[in-house]
Design a protein that fits this description.
Elements (H helix, E strand, L loop, with lengths): L2 H26 L2 H4 L16 E6 L6 E6 L8 E5 L10 H5 L2 H4 L6 E5 L25 H14 L8 E6 L1 H12 L4 E7 L10 H11 L5 H5 L5 H5 L14 E6 L11 H29 L4 E5 L5 H19 L3
Parallel strand pairs: 3-4, 3-5, 5-6, 6-7, 7-8
Antiparallel strand pairs: 1-2, 2-4
Length: about 325
């Protein structure tokens, strides 16, 4: 081999060694790095098992989403929505319930959108003027377009999804499923405020949203006469739920052992909130019965707090797996 050829060979070996070293570094960094962004191109299966935190682009800016991938790489997904006090750094489903453990062996991806404080997971008319909100909430757009499109890059189906929510998220789960039947095959509401157009209940929402972040309900759906209120009322939209498997659960405002750790003040507040949701769910039940639309509806002992929603999710789990074919 002449001198020029030897030099070219050495250069090629150095470049090859650099590429190999980079590949080893990426592999040793683990799955977080390897799938930090969705795969563009044909994907047959989602990651099999494990937990990951994603940052998903949206019209509201990047949204954090916690994910537990389907145990065996299945394509179905369960979206879980928080309540009014949704934290900005995690889903309370992951911190205040055992949702991750409940589904760890199941072939369904759990999707926990993070944020949405006082949003009702809907598309607002404009940013909240009372707290100088920087961007307009566009949660319906995110949950039904931007997020499923992003997850499709990991092999998650856009059409074989279930959705459940607690409190604020309960009504949203039902209305999102009602208006997006091509996406959702199951919906569940746990202590959901499912009839917001009932006279003066908009004012109860106004008070709650002022208390929780100083949000202005008028910037969300306008005055009580605005059609957006009717569109986002699960009871009024009940006909659109016909044929959809549903589990609806609410407490009767009677505290139990699960309330002891929250103290007297919090328990009294949780009792009052659950008394309101019980009435709303009774009206939804009557509406579904009048329309001849079947649903499992449970009124149980309990208040407006996470231990009872954990129990509701456990009851809903086999129904969710059946609806999605995710056993």
């Amino acid at each position: 081999m002449n001198t020029d050829a030897r030099i070219r060979n050495q250069r090629w070996l150095r470049r090859a060694g650099t590429v190999a070293a980079a590949a080893v570094l990426l592999a040793s960094a683990g799955a977080e790095v390897a799938i930090a962004a969705p795969v563009h191109g044909p994907v047959l299966r989602s990651p099999a098992g494990g937990y990951q935190e994603l940052w998903v682009p949206s019209s509201m800016g990047p949204i954090k989403v916690q994910v537990q991938w389907a145990a065996r790489g299945g394509s179905s997904a369960l979206y879980l929505l928080d309540g009014l006090r949704a934290p900005g750094d995690h889903s309370q489903w992951t911190s205040d319930t055992d949702a991750l453990r409940q589904f760890v062996g199941d072939n369904v991806t759990l999707v926990f959108p993070v944020g949405g404080h006082s949003s009702f997971y809907t598309d607002w008319y404009r940013p909240s003027s009372s707290n100088h909100q920087a961007t307009t909430y566009r949660w319906e757009t995110f949950l039904t377009k931007e997020l499923p499109d992003y997850l499709a890059g990991f092999g998650v189906s856009r059409t074989n999804n279930a959705i459940v929510g607690a409190s604020m998220g309960g009504n949203a789960a039902l209305t999102l499923a009602a208006h997006h039947r091509d996406q959702f095959r199951f919906a569940g509401s746990f202590s959901g405020f499912v009839h917001p157009t009932f006279p003066m209940w908009n004012e109860a929402m106004r008070a709650a949203m002022i208390d929780e972040g100083n949000f202005d309900v008028d910037d969300m759906w306008g005055p009580a006469s605005d059609p957006a209120w009717n569109r986002n009322d699960a009871t009024n939209q009940a006909e659109l739920l016909r044929g959809l498997p549903m589990y609806i659960s609410t407490g009767n405002a009677v505290p139990g052992l699960a309330d002891l750790r929250f103290g007297v003040g919090n328990t009294v507040n949780a009792m009052g909130l659950e008394a309101m949701t019980m009435v709303a769910n009774q009206m939804l039940r009557d509406r579904l019965v009048a329309l001849g639309i079947p649903a499992r509806i449970d009124f149980v002992n309990g208040t407006h707090t996470w231990p009872y929603w954990q129990q509701a999710l456990a009851i809903a789990r086999p129904m969710i797996l059946d609806a999605l074919g995710a056993h």
